[in-house]
Write the structure tokens for this entry.
Amino acid sequence: MTSTLPPLVQAFSGAIGSASANALTYPLDLVTTRLQLDSPEKAKKSGGVHGAIRILRRIIKNHGLQDLYTGLGTDTGATLLSNFFYFYFYAFLRYLLTRRRLTLNSKPTDLARPHKPSLAEEILLGFIAGVASRAVSTPLNIITLRLQVEQEEDEEAASEAKAESVAGVNGVVQKIYREEGILGFWRGFKTTTLLSLNPALTLALFQVYRRVLARASVTTGANPSPSQAFLGAAVSNSIAATILYPLMLAKTRLQASSATSMREVLRDAYTGKGRSRRAKTSLAGIERSENPGIYGLYQGLEMQIVKGFFSQGVTFLVKGRVEQLIVEMYSRRR
């Protein structure tokens, strides 16, 4: 992230980068959701990359290639909103922090050297920005998740389901409101709040990566090249996702089922309770399998890392390029 640019520029470039990455990697997101909602027994037999290929083949066979993008519209909307507000809040808070720390410094020579937030400060800034942005995007995320889940539950009615996507979205919205009221659109928000640590940790690790590159670079303070930005963001996200994955799994299952708490969802994942895909009556059908233990808390991790690797890499690559273009356009006008 080019922290010297205005927050609005960073928000715009971050939103464009995230939306681009979302469109490119959306089928991976769909597959990851299916793997997370598989029963533990099925996931053990055909999880990981092989399970992802199995799911992709089944979707294409039963619904057609276009249904790999079921819910893309609402998910892209959520991504644009979430990341615009996230990068704006983060950049604005970071600006305030550096300005405040400079004001507190009594040495005039320090004014030429901006304060660089510590790793803990970076994580805190990212967490606050993440909570604020997720409050805006959670309803669209839930609608997208329900679209992804209900597509597979209604495989027998696949021909009827191929109506316009707008009708599908309206149907899901009405169903959520009818069953759970307005608060249903923020179902699992407590878990989502904790997941704000994921982008916060990713961004903090990326800032550390930038500082290491800057020290190694001949040109002081040089920004990462596109390939360096891609690699740094991808690795940072992979590390963050691995650490926080049980919370990601809990969020997906909590928003797709009738479970009432994160603790309940995590306990079910650990003891081997999985949502049955064949239960058409509701999203909360439960089937029992052998106790998966810790493995159950990391079900679908492989595809989450693959998805996050490319998604975050593309996000920061495009974001950096957009910022560079804006700077060049501004320089030409002067």
